[in-house]
Amino acid sequence: MIHDSLNNLREEIQKHNQIESLDYERFGVKRGLRNADGTGVMAGLTKVCAVEGYVLKDGERIPQDGRLVYRGIDVRDIADGCRAENRFGFEETVWLLLMGSLPTKRQLENFQTMMSEGCALPEGFVDDMIRKAPSPNIMNTLARSTLALYRYDENPDDTSLENVLRQCVQLIAQLPVVMAHAYQSKRDYYDKQSRIIHPAETSNSIAQTILHSIRADGKVGEEEARLLDLCLLLHAEHGGGNNSTFATRVLTSSGTDTYSTIAAGIGSLKGPKHGGANIKVAQMLRQLRTAIPDPDNDGQVLDALCKVLRRELGDGSGLIYGMGHAVYTLSDPRAKLIKQNIQDFPRINEAEFAHDFALLQAIERLTPQAFKIARGEKKRVCANVDLYSGLAYRLLGIPEDLYTPLFTVARTAGWSAHRIEELLTCGRIIRPAYKNVSNPHHYHQIDRREENLPARDAAYIPAEERE
User: Which residue numbers in the chain have pLDDT < 70?
Assistant: First the structure.
């Protein structure tokens, strides 16, 4: 009965909520805040991050190798510099994004101490907010817990720089702990597996803390922690125009609190079109393993990719997950760095991982050719960060449940930097316009109304054309 009623309501909604493509063109609406060439509409200015994948010359996009720049510094230089000095880089990156410059040794040590001291959750929080209300999706628990932390803050609504910075640093430190407890509670309640909790060691980096907290034995190898640290560093920020960061900017502009703002970013990142894409890659890879017995056989790989594009294989979306990006054209620097570090990782030579790594590289190499065969499109398309990040997590024994939450833990740094910048530099609430394209209708008394009427407003009639 309820199911039939919902079906009827769905049909009614669909009848009256259609907008024709012609209307978007008529009023020059840029759907998704995207220009016709796929680039983003210029909506603001930032000093936090630059995402570069092409140059404009005489109105034409000229592809170039991608660059990701944090506060004017190429992310490759940050990653290479930390590795050369045998240091973890995520905490340094957090400082850089928030403060705007690289920390000195003393500043970094003090900042790491501040984060270690700030990671503790309020007394009773884990039992009341996480263990008693586990969720099958850890992102849900992260968002709910972030909002709940508001009530433990003595000054939650103060948007002064000092207070917002305190809140942001504390959330960056606390969310890895929330994630670990949420994961263990999910394992206990939904998966019927043992709930294992290891006390955090204050001398550990965030990458070490995460791996320590989710492993039964709590043991973490140096190379393992460095690979996760690199992933966190590369996911920490990606410009002000991505969906979740723009969401945090929008909420910040309204004057709301830090907890509501970060929770909005989490809600956005949960979406499969945004932060959930690396899980889509993992799901696609499992299907392709069956269709491609030999990843070194280009014919098998190409045939399978063409089937994906024709919606004959995969999830029916016609998308090859992990390939293509709104900005990057020739290469995604994050994908290149993760791929490079995977190649040097000890476990990559194990049969399971070697097979999948070869398959991912074949997908990266042959996808442009598949577009040409399946769709007749000569398309520049490069691997994005999601193609290889899932394999990196698998090498570390990290379950899929934590793929997007790990993205969240890292990206909270970028959201925080943009929140602070929005508060300091903008001062106006973000309010874009929406053009109403419904036609005028008369109000009818209830006894004159009929059910199952045909759809109205199939096409918008401009005012000057109405009778």
Answer: 1, 456-458
Interatomic CA distance for residues 440 and 111, integer angstroms: 60
Give dist(CA 263, CA 271) in Å, integer: 13
For 56, the enclosing helix (H) or strand (E) is strand 49-57
Q: How many domains does the chain have?
A: 2
Which residue from 435, 421, 428, 433 is spatially nearest to 463, judged by alpha carbons? 435
Q: Quick one: pLDDT at residue 213?
A: 93
Cα separation, 228 vs 394, in Å, equals 11
**Residue 53: phi, psi to the nearest 5?**
-140, -5
271/153 same-domain check: yes
Q: Is 441 a domain residue?
A: no
Residue 43 near residue 245 (C-beta atoms within 8 A): no
pLDDT of residue 374: 96
d(CA 184, CA 191): 10
What pLDDT is attached to residue 466? Answer: 79
Give the pLDDT score at 7.
84
φ and ψ of 340, to 5 deg: -60, -40
Same domain as 154, residue 206: yes
Are residues 210 and 312 located together in one domain of the fold? no
Give the CATH number, domain containing residue 128. 1.10.580.10
State the pLDDT at residue 458: 66
Full residue range of the structural domain in which residue 387 is found: 277-394
Report yes or no on 105 lying in a domain. Answer: yes
Look-up: residue for tokens 């194990």?
350
164 and 256 co-located in one domain: yes
pLDDT digits (tens, 9 = 90+) for 262-284: 999 999 999 988 988 889 999 99
The pair of structure tokens assigned to 363 is 């997908």
Q: How far is CA 19 from CA 207, 433, 460, in A?
A: 47, 16, 8
- The answer to whether 226 and 114 are in contact (CB under 8 A) is no
Residues 113 and 212 in one domain: yes
Q: How far apart are the first and last CA of the chain?
A: 43
Tell me, yes or no, whether 77 lies in a domain: no
Contact present, 244 and 250 (Cβ < 8 Å):
no
Same domain (yes/no): 331, 200: no
Alpha-carbon span 109 to 97, nearest angstrom:
16
